[in-house]
Amino acid sequence: MLNIGKLLRGKERYYLDKVARSQEEYYTGAGEAPGQWAGTAAAELDIAGEVSEDGLLRVLNGAHPDTAARLGGSPHGERVLAFDLTFRAPKSVSLLYALGGPQVSAAVREANAKAVAAALGYLEQHAAIARRGHGGEQLVRGNGFIAALFQHRTSRAGDPLLHIHALIANLTRGPDGRWTALDGRALYAHAKTAGYLYQAVLRHELTSTLEVAWGAVRNGVADVAGIPRKLIEAFSRRRQQITRRLAERGEHSAKSAQTAALDTRGPKEHGVSEQTLRGRWRQHAEAAGFTTRDLDAVVGQATARPLAAADSDRIIAQLAGSEGLTREASTFCRRDVLRAICEQLPAGAEVAEIEDLADRFLRAEGLVIPVTYVDEDLAPVGDTIRRADGRAVSARVDTNRYSTHDLVALEASVIAAAERRQGVGAGIVPEQILTAVLDSHVGRRTPKAAGGTWLENRTVSGQAAAPGAAQRSRVRWWVCGCGWLAGVRRRVARVGVGGRPSCR
Questions:
Q1: pLDDT, one tens digit for every residue, the chain (504 residues)
Q2: What are phi and psi of 203, to 5 degrees?
Q3: Which one-letter DSSP state was computed for residue 51?
Q4: What angle do CA 275, 99, 90 make, to 5 degrees?
Q5: Under a CB-based contact definition with an 8 Å cutoff, are residues 163 and 88 in contact?
Q6: Which of the two ends of the chain, N or C, has the fewest CB atoms closer than 10 A to its terminal CB?
Q7: What are the phi and psi torsion angles at 159 (to 5°)?
Q8: How far apart are CA 489 and CA 502, in angstroms?
Q9: What is the C-alpha to C-alpha distance for residues 276 and 183, in angstroms, rounded to an integer?
Q10: CA-CA distance, 491 to 485, in Å (whole number)?
């Protein structure tokens, strides 16, 4: 799981306090380990080792942490100083760390650190982007991140919760040598995918070192096989606090959950030694009926192996099928493919393996077809990335989109069926009504309660429908208020000419 937030100017004290406290407590046998510098841009500047309070403050204000030499302009106003990415291991992995012996615990922490490094590497490759030109209309590749990593072991309720805060300074150096702010849109666009890759690499590392098996992958996350649900719930007191507050208020939305988390947020317990924490955790586990012998049975249950050709073929076939990437959407992008592949890998894989398989799928002749949607409201026409070779490529996050040959063929058959009934006159909506409805919804999204909105005269591939099928294609596509595009895959039968389909 990966969450992302912004650190604004004037809010630095939280992290500065964290750095100072970590340094003071760690070397007295308590507290979290001090932060460590990371990132390609940091390495190029010879920034490495332990994060100091002064060094972090300098970086957040656009200077070198050691020499204080200016890198970028001084922040002013409400400028974003950094992006806070929080990588959280599954609770079962945290329990493996908390209840295991020294070797098991060390292996879990090392696997977690490698997984975070891999996810940050993916983000550096795809989201380290800076803006140039009038109004920032041109985007250029940056040289990576300057990041400070803070490893934590516990939740605010004192339960084991391995998580790493990656504080990425809002700085990167472009091909012209200038240090400027990151374009945060790319970070947010790739954050979910980076979270899936983090989880996949974590599973791969733990399968390789501890030979643990895994349950099913859901939303990118899987739990260690043999860690019972009852134990996970017993060590999820922070979640229980939030759930109780939501129940008290009768709320259930994601925004309400964030509010409940803040309302129930207590201070972390500081100055507690690792020996004391482990003693508490083992007692709590035994009270829940889980012993050291049970934990010993969890490791050594699986053998890591490279992704076989047969596995790759199976995954590609699944992604291209009716229950794959086009099950709920008519098109997809490369990030969708990466996440879908992670879902098919309970034992995980390296990022390079996952990306190679994604690119192989997107190049598969007879299965995948490139399509292009241009939404002028999402990105200005001038948004491009200037490559090192001088070539300009589009920087719109979802410009390179794809569909499957099967889905495009299905669309063609539906349009053909509508054309065959052209003279029947069933369900034909008068042209003036269609025009009025379309004009009233241009450039805005209809609230869910209002039902939805008609899509312009376009097919799945984004091309204008044939003149003879103009009215039928315009009537056929209906965008529900929840954002679902009706008329694709198995739900196409619900779409009547001139009727309102439902996404339910």
A1: 788 988 888 777 776 776 555 555 554 455 677 889 999 999 999 999 999 888 998 999 899 999 999 987 776 666 889 999 999 999 999 999 999 999 999 999 999 999 999 999 999 999 999 888 776 677 889 999 999 998 888 887 778 899 999 999 999 999 999 998 899 989 999 999 999 999 999 999 999 999 999 999 999 999 999 999 999 988 887 665 666 666 666 766 766 656 655 655 665 666 677 888 889 999 989 999 999 899 999 999 998 888 889 999 999 999 999 899 999 888 999 999 999 999 999 999 999 999 999 999 999 988 999 887 544 333 343 455 555 566 555 555 546 889 999 888 888 888 888 788 777 766 667 788 878 887 776 655 444 444 444 444 444 444 444 433 433 333 334 444 333 333 333 333 333 333 444 333
A2: -65, -40
A3: P
A4: 120
A5: yes
A6: C
A7: -80, 155
A8: 14
A9: 44
A10: 10
Q: Which residue has the tokens 């699986």?
A: 302
Residue written as token pair 């192989």: 360
**Amino acid making up residue 244:** R
| Structural contact between residues 42 and 1, judged by C-beta atoms closer than 8 angstroms | no
Question: Tokens 């109004």 correspond to what residue?
Answer: 135
Strands in 142-202 per DSSP E:
147-154, 160-169, 172-173, 179-180
Pair 402, 362: CB distance under 8 Å:
yes
The residue length of the chain stands at: 504
- Other Cβ atoms less than 10 A from the Cβ of 387: the count is 12
> Residue 100 to residues 108, 279, 413: CA-CA distances in angstroms?
9, 12, 58
Both tokens of 406, joined, read: 């099967």
**Residues 199, 342: contact at Cβ < 8 Å?**
yes
Give the H/E segment covering residue 418: helix 405-420
Residue 151 bridge partners (DSSP)? 164
Give buried/exposed letters for 11-22 (b at 16+ CB in 10 A, else e).
ebeebeebbebb
Measured distance CA(145)–CA(123) in Å, rounded: 9
Residue by residue, DSSP assigns 205-272 as HHHHHH---B---BTTB-PBTTS-HHHHHHT-HHHHHHHHHHHHHT--SHHHHHHHHHHT-PPPP-S-
448 phi and psi angles, rounded to 5 deg:
-60, -35
SS3 state of residue 36: strand
Q: For residue 76, what is the enclosing H or E element?
A: none
- Tokens matching residue 405: 């040959």
Bridge partner list, 180: 172
pTM for the predicted model, two decimal places? 0.78
Contact 109, 210 (CB under 8 A): no
Spatial separation of the C-alpha atoms in residues 503 and 483, rounded to whole Å: 9
List, in sequence order, the alpha helices (H) in 264-324. Answer: 274-287, 292-296, 309-320
